[in-house]
Design brief:
This protein has helices spanning 12-20, 23-32, 46-65, 75-86, 90-117, 126-148, 153-164, 176-185, 192-220, 242-267, 297-305, 309-329, 341-362, 378-403, 413-418; strands at 35-37, 239-241, 368-371, 374-377. The protein has 425 residues and is mainly α. β3 (368-371) and β4 form a beta hairpin. α13 runs antiparallel to α14 (378-403).
Length: 425
C-alpha cells in the first residue's frame, strides 16, 4: 500500500516547511489519504486506543515522578501521603496511572487476540507481529517495575519472588543465577538500591515503548492493514482513505473506551488493586498469597504449575518466546479464522484457556475446586491450561492448517462488503 506522495503544499509557509521538515506531508500520507481496507470492524480500533493509553501513562507518569521519592524509607509515604493527599489533584493523577495500566493491558490483549484470530501475523506482516510482541514484553517489564514503586507489601514481596526466579540458573551454571539476582537487587536483598534501579527503568521504558510503537506503525504502512477477511486488497475499490472514515470511527470507540476508563477511575479506583499494597512493605511479614497484577496472572499460573523451579522458569520463558514464532508455526494458507471452522473452535478454546489460567493464577497455590464432593487441586487445572497453551501453538497451528477444509474466500473486499453492488464499482 506504500506509494508516491499526493501531498501538495497550498501556501507559501507550507511549501517552505515541506522543503525543510516535511511533517505535513508525512501526516497527509500516513493518516489523511492512507488507503485502508473498507471492511475493518470494531476490533481494529484498539490500535488507536493503545496509542491513547500510552500517552496517558507517559504524561501521568512524568507528573508522578516529580513527587515520588525512590527510597525504601520514604517511597510509601511519598505515594500514600504526599501524592494522594498533599499534591493538588495528585490522587487523580495516581489513580489514572494505576488504572491506566490495566486499561492498557486490556486493550493490548484484545488487540493481540484480534491479530491471532484474523491471521494478522502472516506474510507479509511478520515484522509487524514481532514488533508488537516486543512492545508487549516491554509493557510487562514496565508494569512489573511500576508495581514495585509504591513499596507496599505486595510490591516488596512481588519484587522478591520474581527477581529470585533468576537464582534457578544456578542449576545450569553454578552461581550464575545468584550473581544476576544480586546485580538486579544492587544489594544482597530487595531494598534502596533495587527501588532506585526499578524507578529508573520504569521511567525509561515507556519511551522505549513509544519508539518501538513508531517502528510498529512504520512496518504497518508497508504492506497495509490486514482485514477481517484476511484477503489482500485488489484495487482502489477495496479501500477508503483513513481520514475521515476511520478517524471518525476510532474517535467514537475511543470515547466509549474513555467512559469505561473513567468509570473505574471515579467509581472503582481500587478494583484492580491488591489490598495488601495499601500496607507499607515489611520484610519481616510475608503476605498469605503473593500474586502479581491481573494481566500477568496466566504466566504466574504457568510458573506455579511446575514444581521444579528451573523447569517452571523455562516454561514461562517458552510461553513468551513462542509468541515470536507464531508466523512460522501456522501452516495454513488462509489467514482469517472466519474461513477456518476447525481453527476457529481451537481459538475460542485457547481464549477460554487463558481466562482459566488467569483465574488459577489469582488463587492460592494449594487451592482446590469442589466438584460434587470431589476436590480437584487447581494446580492440575493450571497444568492442563499450560499444556493446551503450548499445544495450540506447537501442535494445533501446524497440524490443523494441513488437515482442515477451509471455506471459500470472497473474490474481493468490495464484493464482500457491497455484494453485487461491488461489481459496478
Amino acid at each position: 500500500m506504500a506509494g508516491n506522495s499526493t501531498y501538495v503544499p497550498a501556501t507559501g509557509f507550507t511549501r517552505w516547511l515541506d522543503k525543510r521538515l516535511p511533517i505535513l506531508r508525512l501526516t497527509h500520507d500516513t493518516v489523511s489519504t492512507f488507503p485502508t481496507p473498507r471492511n475493518l470492524n470494531i476490533w481494529y480500533t484498539f490500535g488507536g486506543i493503545l496509542t491513547f493509553c500510552l500517552g496517558v501513562q507517559i504524561v501521568t507518569g512524568v507528573v508522578l515522578a516529580m513527587h515520588y521519592v525512590a527510597s525504601a524509607d520514604l517511597a510509601f509515604n511519598s505515594v500514600e501521603g504526599g501524592i494522594m493527599r498533599e499534591v493538588n489533584y495528585g490522587w487523580l493523577i495516581r489513580i489514572l496511572h494505576a488504572n491506566g495500566a490495566s486499561m492498557f493491558f486490556l486493550a493490548v490483549y484484545i488487540h493481540m487476540f484480534r491479530g491471532v484470530y484474523y491471521g494478522s501475523y502472516k506474510e507479509p506482516r511478520e515484522m509487524i507481529w514481532i514488533l508488537g510482541v516486543l512492545i508487549y514484553l516491554l509493557m510487562m517489564a514496565t508494569a512489573f517495575f511500576g508495581y514495585v514503586l509504591p513499596w507496599g507489601q505486595m510490591s516488596f514481596w512481588g519484587a522478591t519472588v520474581i527477581t529470585s526466579l533468576f537464582s534457578a540458573l544456578d542449576q545450569v551454571i553454578p552461581h550464575l543465577g545468584t550473581a544476576i539476582t544480586t546485580w538486579l537487587w544492587g544489594d544482597f536483598a530487595v531494598g534502596d538500591a533495587t527501588l532506585n534501579r526499578f524507578f529508573s527503568l520504569h521511567y525509561l521504558l515507556p519511551f522505549a515503548i513509544a519508539a518501538v510503537v513508531g517502528l510498529h506503525i512504520w512496518a504497518l504502512h508497508i504492506p497495509g492493514n490486514n482485514n477481517p477477511l484476511g484477503i489482500d486488497v485488489k484495487g482502489p475499490q477495496d479501500t477508503v482513505p483513513f481520514h475521515p472514515y476511520y478517524t471518525a470511527k476510532d474517535a467514537f470507540y475511543l470515547a466509549l473506551f474513555m467512559i469505561l476508563f473513567a468509570a473505574f477511575v471515579f467509581y472503582a479506583p481500587d478494583f484492580f488493586g491488591n489490598p495488601d499494597n495499601s500496607i507499607q512493605a515489611n520484610p519481616l511479614v510475608t503476605p498469605t498469597d503473593i500474586v502479581p497484577e491481573w494481566y500477568l496472572l496466566p504466566y504466574y499460573a504457568m510458573l506455579r504449575s511446575v514444581p521444579q523451579k528451573l523447569i517452571g522458569v523455562l516454561v514461562l520463558l517458552g510461553s513468551l518466546v513462542t509468541l515470536f514464532l507464531i508466523p512460522w508455526l501456522d501452516s495454513s494458507k488462509v489467514r482469517s479464522c472466519r474461513f477456518r471452522p476447525l481453527m476457529k473452535q481451537c481459538f475460542w478454546v485457547f481464549a477460554l484457556d487463558c481466562v482459566l489460567l488467569g483465574y488459577v493464577g489469582s488463587q492460592s497455590a494449594d487451592a482446590v475446586l469442589n466438584l460434587g464432593g470431589m476436590q480437584l487441586p487447581l494446580v492440575w487445572l493450571a497444568r492442563a491450561g499450560t499444556a493446551y497453551y503450548f499445544a495450540y501453538f506447537w501442535v494445533l497451528m501446524p497440524l490443523v492448517g494441513r488437515i482442515e477444509r477451509t471455506k471459500a474466500l470472497p473474490e474481493s473486499i468490495a464484493k464482500s462488503v457491497l455484494g453485487t453492488a461491488g461489481e459496478r464499482i
